């Protein structure tokens, strides 16, 4: 038995020394130390050994197992060290190479334009106020002098959730909510996303952004409105910018006007950008209608005010000379990085 064990150990050691991979080493371990290995078979044959010799043979098998396991561990450790050194050699990092520059976030053209508009009006003493995008029909239409079945509703065809809840078509409801609070005077702008049932094209989208302004105080006149918008245009488009008011109709203001500014591309001389007119339309405005004041709990005999509204995308398109509104929403970083 002793000679048999010695032969098993010698053969196992010989194969271990000749092995060239961890997989081969594992095969040797299974062949000699596994459940069906050579040493296990020796233990199974203990029944053929004389009872008085069994303790000695058992000790010899255990010693053989220990010797083989120690040798396996030694060779495995050497293999793993060599493989690790080879991997490190292959993955050597040249620390003198320039690092990869991480991509940084970039403000969207809409955000840049909005921050500039807010800066201008905050500098005039206005407050920035926000409101819900899901709005009641009352605040979106009725409180703005647009009763049920009014033709103006067709112009702002929108998305209804229920009979009296909808996605707002303008940020004017924010103004109504502020007027209802009764904290006068009011000087505010209300930027935010609005929704209308429009087809997507170069100048329209079912979801876009507006900035609406409101001033309510005693003795507010159309002259205050004109002076405010003239100053706004100069700060936004340049000191030489002039404004022109054209009569218009809005249900919630009276009198009402559309506002044009001199083309900042040609200075009012006429060019392709302004279609030869020298003027570019930017917003609508007017004096707050007395009915709107009354419905919000404000006495029109004591207070007056003006309101205006401009599309944020329109400002961005004009200011940065973008000819297609869809470019703002296609998330093409090649386009967005230009701003």
TrEMBL record:
Mg(2+) binds at residue 254. The keyword Protease does not apply. Its main location: cytoplasm. It catalyses: tRNA(Phe) + L-phenylalanine + ATP = L-phenylalanyl-tRNA(Phe) + AMP + diphosphate + H(+). GO terms for molecular function: ATP binding; catalytic activity, acting on a protein; magnesium ion binding; phenylalanine-tRNA ligase activity; transferase activity; tRNA binding. Residues 117-330 form the Aminoacyl-transfer RNA synthetases class-II family profile domain. It is found in: Cytoplasm. Transmembrane segments: none annotated. Its EC number is 6.1.1.20. Its cofactor is Mg(2+). Keywords: Aminoacyl-tRNA synthetase, ATP-binding, Cytoplasm, Ligase, Magnesium, Metal-binding, Nucleotide-binding, Protein biosynthesis. PROSITE patterns: AA_TRNA_LIGASE_II. InterPro entries: aa-tRNA-synth_II, aa-tRNA-synth_II/BPL/LPL, Phe-tRNA-synth_IIc_asu, Phe-tRNA_ligase_II_N, Phe_tRNA_ligase_alpha1_bac, Phenylalanyl-tRNA_Synthase, tRNA-bd_arm. PANTHER family: PHENYLALANINE--TRNA LIGASE, MITOCHONDRIAL, PHENYLALANYL-TRNA SYNTHETASE. This is Phenylalanine--tRNA ligase alpha subunit. It comes from Anaerocolumna aminovalerica.
């Amino acid at each position: 038995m002793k000679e048999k064990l010695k032969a098993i150990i010698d053969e196992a050691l010989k194969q271990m020394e000749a092995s060239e991979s961890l997989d081969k080493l594992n095969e040797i371990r299974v062949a000699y130390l596994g459940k069906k290995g050579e040493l296990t078979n020796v233990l199974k044959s203990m029944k053929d050994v004389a009872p008085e010799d069994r303790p000695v043979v058992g000790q010899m098998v255990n010693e053989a197992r220990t010797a083989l396991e120690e040798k396996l561990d030694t060779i495995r450790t050497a293999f793993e060290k060599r493989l690790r050194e080879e991997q490190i050699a292959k993955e050597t990092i040249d620390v003198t190479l320039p690092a990869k520059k991480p991509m940084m976030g970039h403000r969207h053209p809409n955000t840049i334009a909005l921050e500039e508009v807010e800066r201008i009006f905050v500098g005039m003493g206005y407050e920035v106020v926000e409101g819900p995008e899901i709005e009641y029909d009352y605040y979106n239409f009725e409180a703005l002098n647009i009763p049920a079945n009014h033709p103006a509703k067709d112009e702002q065809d929108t998305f209804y959730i229920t009979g009296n809840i909808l996605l707002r078509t303008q940020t004017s409801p924010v103004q109504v909510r502020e007027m209802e609070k009764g904290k006068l005077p009011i000087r505010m702008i209300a930027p935010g996303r609005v929704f209308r049932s429009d087809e997507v094209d170069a100048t329209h989208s079912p979801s876009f952004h507006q900035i609406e302004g409101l001033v309510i105080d005693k003795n507010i006149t159309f002259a205050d409105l004109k002076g405010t918008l003239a100053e706004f245009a100069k700060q936004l488009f340049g000191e030489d910018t002039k404004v022109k008011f054209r009569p218009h109709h809005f249900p919630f203001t009276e009198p009402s006007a559309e506002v044009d500014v001199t083309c900042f591309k040609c200075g009012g001389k006429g060019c392709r950008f302004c279609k030869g007119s020298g003027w570019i339309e930017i917003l609508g405005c007017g004096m707050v209608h007395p009915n709107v004041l009354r419905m919000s709990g404000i006495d029109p005999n004591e207070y007056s005010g003006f309101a205006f509204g401009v599309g944020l995308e329109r400002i961005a398109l004009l200011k940065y000379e973008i000819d297609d509104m869809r470019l703002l929403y296609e998330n093409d970083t090649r386009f967005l990085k230009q701003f």
